[in-house]
TrEMBL record, chain A:
One Pfam family here: SUFBD_core
InterPro entries: Fe-S_cluster_assembly_SufBD, SUF_FeS_clus_asmbl_SufBD_core, SUF_FeS_clus_asmbl_SufBD_sf, SUF_FeS_clus_asmbl_SufD, SufBD_N
Name of this protein: Iron-regulated ABC transporter permease protein SufD
Record SUPFAM superfamilies: Stabilizer of iron transporter SufD (SSF101960)
The SUF system FeS cluster assembly SufBD N-terminal domain, residue ranges: 5-186
The species this protein was found in: Nitrospirillum amazonense
Segments forming domain SUF system FeS cluster assembly SufBD core: 188-421
Family: Belongs to the iron-sulfur cluster assembly SufBD family.
TrEMBL record, chain B:
Residues annotated as domain ABC transporter: 2-246
Keywords, in A-Z order: ATP-binding, Nucleotide-binding
Organism: Nitrospirillum amazonense
Family: Belongs to the ABC transporter superfamily. Ycf16 family.
TM segment ranges: none
SMART domains in the cross-refs: AAA
Protein name: Fe-S cluster assembly ATP-binding protein
InterPro entries according to UniProt: AAA+_ATPase, ABC_transporter-like_ATP-bd, ABC_transporter-like_CS, FeS-cluster_ATPase_SufC, P-loop_NTPase
Keyword ATP-binding: yes
GO MF terms, alphabetically ordered: ATP binding; ATP hydrolysis activity
Domain of life of the native organism: Bacteria
Amino acid sequence: MAAIATLKDLYETLSPGLPGAGAAGLDRLRADGYARFLADGIPTPKVEGWKYTNLRDLAGVSLAPAQGTIDSAANTDFDVPSVAPGETHRLVFVDGRFNAALSAVGALPQSVTLDSLRGLIEASPATAAEVLERFPAPKADTGLRVGPNPGRGQALGLVGLNGAFLAEGAVLTVGEGVKLARPVEIVFIATAADGAWHPRLLIDVAAGAEVTVAEHHVARGGGATFANIVSGVRVGEGAILRHAKFQEEAETALHLASVTATVAASGTYETFVLTTGGRLARTDVQVRLQGSGAQTRVSGAYGVDGSRHADFTSLIDHVAANCTSREVVKGVIDGRGRAVFQGKIIVRPDAQKTDGHQLNRALLLSDTAEIDAKPELEIYADDVKCSHGATAGELDEEALFYLRARGIPADTARALLIAAFLDEVAEEIGDEHLRAYATARIQDRIGRLTGITVDTDAPVLGE
Amino acid sequence: MLEIKNLHATVDGKEILKGINLTINPGEVHAIMGPNGSGKSTLSYVLSGRDGYEVTGGSVTFQGKDLLAMEAEERAAEGVFLAFQYPVEIPGVSNTTFLKTALNAVRKHKGLPELDAMQFLKLIRAKAKSLNMNDDMIKRAVNVGFSGGEKKRNDILQMAMLEPSFAILDETDSGLDIDALKLVADGVNSLRSPERSMLVITHYQRLLSYIVPDHVHVLAYGKIVRSGGKELALELEAKGYAEFGSPEAA
Ligand SMILES: Nc1ncnc2c1ncn2[C@@H]1O[C@H](COP(=O)(O)OP(=O)(O)OP(=O)(O)O)[C@@H](O)[C@H]1O
Ligand SMILES: [Mg+2]
């Protein structure tokens, strides 16, 4: 990557100005991150898990902090996406920078905190460093030493890069037993023509607590920006976290996200990722089910056309017994678009009674659309139920004719079938706000893809 | 209404229809009977415009227009309706979404205003009720998880909603229980009018005692080999198709 030399300059120039610079804990975290990046660099196709997504384009991307053309501190005119307008606790970032004016945290119950990382650091660098270290660290490998394959980990180079510039991000902690009524939203708005941001998102849901989090990544005039997001998630005993990410950036944007989640006994981590923006977008989710009875639901929907690229990579690690995981990822690929699905389920020796299912389906709308699917099961326990399936196909001709034979024009019929295909993923979402929003965003994307507005919201019957 | 002249059609290069001639006047109900594989469904697909059915000769005129020149959706909008022998399951598309989209597309084509959600609901509820279909069935994904008979009723519901001027019923009676058969027949009969014509494909005379045809035709090996009145159905039921020969003879 050509930018490494420049990156050194950048690191040396920017470091002293980052919040909390000089405080021992933070300096060390950043130095570690930088060292890690220098050691691992940007992953190449030779690195396991990166065979199908080539980051060579990163060479031409500006890693300098994005400079919005708009005075984001003063501007409150943005159309800020929301799953429930006016009824969420939200933090907003413009071009990667926390924007207090647009944020609206509102009243939170005691024992719930929602802070911008910058705010936390400015208040107390030492506390911030402590908080940062509390979260599960992404691992380069899974530490599994049985079997032929140590298990793919996350790209520590990217995580290191994120750490080197650690300054922005969001920290949500939900205290024991608290059920937060309103969703939390973390919104990233891109306005800059280029430039990068490296936010850290941390979510800690204590035992018995319950919360819904929606993460948005949108462009309001933004261009070839680069978002390199690292998230740490902890779900406590019996806690429930519903986490949705809506990635809808500009068609020239680059989006790379690494999520590491741990789930304690009987806890539930539900995550949904919609990927419809960016010229290259990858979400890499690792979930460790580490207490008995922990559950996870990982779902994803994507739509790519042109020569865009979407990558959904996941690792579900069944560490403890009696855990269940269910993964459904579906996407639509048109033009010369390309998608990657890599889904691995590991069942460790102690994870008896594991129930793990994975499904990946791709709809190819053109002859030049491409999908690389790599489902993997690695099972080291004997009393388990696991399955995976991957299919790639075209629109069902019979269904298409059935619709047309009722008078529905061909392009509308296609749009309806595409919407139906993706809506099935939205059905995986437990939270109704998130589900309705996901459906609407999917329809919006299909509308832009096909030029047809479909309304799959059946009129409400029965009242 | 419909004039089929010397219609030839192939599927995957194999000639299935070998010169069909049939004229259906407004208000008439014609029945087509015939052995398995004789081309009855093929004829219905050719008339409704399914891809993959290549017309290699002949013509079809519908209400003065060249039917074969139209896309499937245009034919539907012009008033052609096919009740499928095997209605298709469409996961993820609800019956209501499907029918509302279809109805409004057809209305638009006819220059009628589109129905809003409430008007649509009122209409579909009334039609569904007369076919003994409940709210649950009209809300569910199109035909998904429907029993064989429910699928057929669902097709007839679509017909009742779209009010076509020419309906082809391809073995709509197969898989229906006795009560459902009566309901479906009532549904079909209620649509009978001097302006509306039907082509009823069936293997059983029983349906024709409910939907009484004006003419009965035998389609065997790609050709109409005999035509008659409603009594022909009774005769066929008694004697079978042996007298019409074998595929080699055709
Ligand atoms: N895709 C295809 N490729 C080759 N042959 C086909 C194809 N589709 C239909 N056929 C053949 O065309 C012939 C007519 O089929 P069709 O479905 O029209 O018969 P049918 O009269 O409706 O029979 P049934 O009473 O069993 O419904 C059959 O021999 C069938 O095998
Ligand atoms: Mg047939």
